[in-house]
Design goal:
By secondary structure, this protein is an alpha/beta fold. It contains 21 helices and 21 strands. The strands form five sheets. Strands 9-10-12-14-18-19-20-21 form an eight-stranded parallel beta barrel, surrounded by four helices. A five-stranded mixed sheet has the order 2-3-6-4-5.
Length: 671
């Protein structure tokens, strides 16, 4: 009898166990799987019409007016999503327009596609979807790492291997989040965050760091997280800049129509900077800042907002004459922009500049707001710069005899061209006047300017004829303000100045963190700029790179110090001997550590001859000319090197220093 009872009991226990497993699986499914959207496939392998959702199992030409998902055939995982995706083996494409395109945009890489007849369902699995997304990101990074290794870039691959080990452990920890009846979503989120941070850290390690690099940042006094109202505060701020790897500080010295320092010429000081105690430097913030920066090798440039007379919409300081303020087409002067065609304005600006040069040991003067405002739309035409003086002067110089210039500008295109030429000439004349004053008063001073973005846009929109300024020898450095998160636009805009790199250095002006971008995007854009061979960059602004959030501030420091700012860099505008020695030492170090194993004895002899043929102690134009000639010979010889990766890496480095030294040689001709 007992044996007969055992079997039903076993069956009952097995059934209970199976029900329990089914419950757990069902419970996990409810917790981990969600429906992203459901839709209907309109057609297959045919033209995509309005609001269509088309499945392509073969490569068919598509346009950019929709949105697409690339899906693995076997698994259903979405592995790419974009306006147009590239079909690869064992995949199909879901391509949609209009309302169906909006549906596809709600899907993410890692989501799972299921198709029953014409019905399309996209699911998101908390575990597998995130793992797939992470796997795809990591695979792309591995491709970058392999490219860096094969191409002989100076990257710490041992550190990357350590990160890979951490990634493997973090992946296992993420999976363990799901080995439980009730899933802790906070724990899952934290685990994913850690995985993403490791990925970012791995990406940052793929960057090379330059021995010679312009690393600038704009700074409004006392505007970062560090209180600069005391000497200890200034020292702390400078120390933080140094840790961030910054070697060019652009400090606001004339802003909102007032000066940071007490101006004897104006008889006033910006109220934000008055009455502070800087110990041995008295109450002089600029003296304290410049002195402390120089102790750690940071150049200080006067960020001089030339034609800005105050905060837009408010009143200008009392020393600004009303007749100096230019109006737009509607007669509005609220932009508080000074008229550069007025000799009184030119005298005012130059007097402030001369006083700053006399009082302080600035390494450079940097022109900002050296332009007209783009304001006042009326009947589809935008313009500004109107004062009684500018209209009278234009009328005289261009033989304008009409009674209403503003009205005539709307209808007469030739008149408009003349008016714009007049304004461009006025700005250029002011730039020439200021630069001549600087060259005469302090010839060693580095002169820079921050024109608007693309070189042609700066000229046509804001009347900044930057090319003419360069040709006239008015600038040593140009800092184009390219405030975009679009990498393609950034590269295209920065490239518009590259043709003039033998005459002037470029430090591309960027503002990713100011615009709310991620640190990863910041580094992607920085890398894009450096890939062009550009000699530097400048970030806007210190409050975004030394923020009040201490944790984020530490993270910024960690990211920069592990990537672009890993090595301390010499500023390209430092003395040519220091610049060339730093560059050459890095080249020879890379040769010993990375390149030499891939070279023949003949190749090695050529590198060693270059070392012997070039002296480190350069001083003056003749020495620079000799080094440039030697660099040209060395580059020609490198074209015959047996290993093309070594050839490419050394050629890139030669081109980089050649531009910097060429611009330095040009600068000597202005002295």
């Amino acid at each position: 009898m007992k044996k007969k009872i055992v079997y039903p009991l076993v069956i009952l226990l097995v059934a209970i166990f199976a029900l329990g497993i089914a419950f757990i699986i069902n419970n996990h499914k409810k917790q981990t799987i969600s429906i992203v959207f459901e839709g209907t496939i309109t057609a297959e392998n045919t033209k995509r019409n309005e609001n269509f959702l088309v499945l392509y199992s073969q490569d068919v030409e598509r346009n950019e007016y929709g949105y697409e998902l690339l899906v693995e055939k076997d698994t259903g995982f979405i592995i790419d999503a974009d306006i147009i995706v590239e079909m690869i083996d064992d995949t199909f494409v879901l391509s949609a327009h209009g309302t169906n395109a909006d549906l596809l945009r709600t899907a993410k890489v890692g989501d799972i596609v299921r198709i029953e007849k014409d019905t399309l369902t996209v699911e998101r699995n908390m575990m597998t979807s995130n793992l797939k997304q992470f796997e795809i990101k990591n695979k792309k990074l591995d491709e970058i790492v392999q490219n860096r290794k094969t191409s002989l870039y100076d990257v710490d691959f041992n550190a990357i291997k350590e990160i890979d080990d951490k990634i493997n452990q973090a992946t296992k920890a993420f999976k363990r989040c799901f080995y439980t009846l009730n899933i802790d979503e906070i724990k899952v989120k934290n685990s994913l965050t850690q995985l993403d941070e490791f990925l970012d850290e791995k990406y940052y390690l793929t960057f090379e760091s330059y021995a010679v690099d312009g690393r600038g940042i704009w700074h409004r006094p006392n505007d970062s997280a560090i209180d600069e109202r005391t000497l200890d505060g200034v020292k702390n701020f400078v120390s933080t800049l140094n840790k961030l790897g910054i070697n060019n500080l652009y400090v606001e010295t004339y802003w909102q129509g007032l000066t940071t320092h007490y101006s004897d010429y104006l008889g006033s000081q910006h109220p934000k900077m008055a009455n502070n105690d800087y110990g041995e430097y008295g109450n002089d913030y600029l003296l304290a800042l410049i002195s402390e920066c120089h102790k750690v090798g940071i150049e200080v440039h006067a960020w001089f907002e030339v034609l800005n007379a105050g905060i837009t919409g408010l009143t200008a300081p009392s020393h600004i004459k009303d007749e100096w303020l230019s109006a737009n087409l509607l007669g509005d002067t609220s932009d508080l922009c000074l008229d550069p065609s007025n000799p009184e304005v030119v005298e005012y600006v130059c007097s402030l500049l001369s006083e700053m040069l006399e009082k302080y040991d600035f390494d450079g003067i940097s022109y900002d707001y050296i332009r007209y405002a783009e304001t006042g739309t009326y009947n589809g035409y935008t313009d500004c710069g109107f004062t009684k003086y500018s209209i009278d002067r234009f009328s005289k110089e261009y033989n304008y005899t009409g009674n209403d210039l503003i009205s005539d500008l709307h209808t007469n295109e030739n008149l408009r061209k003349s008016w714009h030429e007049f304004k461009k000439n006025a700005v250029t004349a002011l730039v020439q006047k200021m630069s001549a004053l600087i060259r005469q008063q302090k010839p060693e001073t580095i002169i820079s300017a921050s024109p608007y973005g693309y070189i042609s846009d700066a000229k046509e929109i804001y009347m900044q004829d930057t090319l003419t300024w360069i040709e006239y020898g008015c600038l040593d450095v140009v800092l184009p303000m390219i405030y975009t998160e679009n990498e393609e636009l950034l590269v295209q805009t920065a490239s518009s100045y590259v043709d003039y790199s033998d005459k002037v250095l470029q430090y591309t002006g960027m503002s990713p963190l100011y615009n709310g971008a991620t640190l990863r995007k910041n580094q992607e854009l920085t890398f894009a700029v450096k890939s062009l061979g550009i000699s530097g960059f400048s970030y806007f602004a210190t409050k975004n790179y030394i923020p009040r959030n201490k944790h984020y501030s530490e993270k910024i420091l960690l990211v920069l110090s592990n990537s672009t700012h890993k090595n301390r860099a010499i500023s390209p505008t430092d003395h040519e001997s220091i610049v060339f020695s730093a560059w050459k030492n890095q080249l020879l170090d890379r040769y010993e550590r990375i390149y030499s194993d891939y070279l023949t004895e003949s190749d090695k002899n050529r590198v060693e001859r270059f070392d012997l043929d070039t002296k480190n102690n350069l001083d003056g134009a003749n020495d620079i000319s000799q080094v440039l000639a030697t660099l040209s010979d060395f580059k020609r010889d490198i074209n015959n090197f047996s290993n093309y990766n070594v050839r490419d890496r050394i050629t890139e480095q030669i081109d980089y220093i050649y531009k910097i030294l060429s611009a330095t040689l040009t600068r000597y001709s202005y002295r």
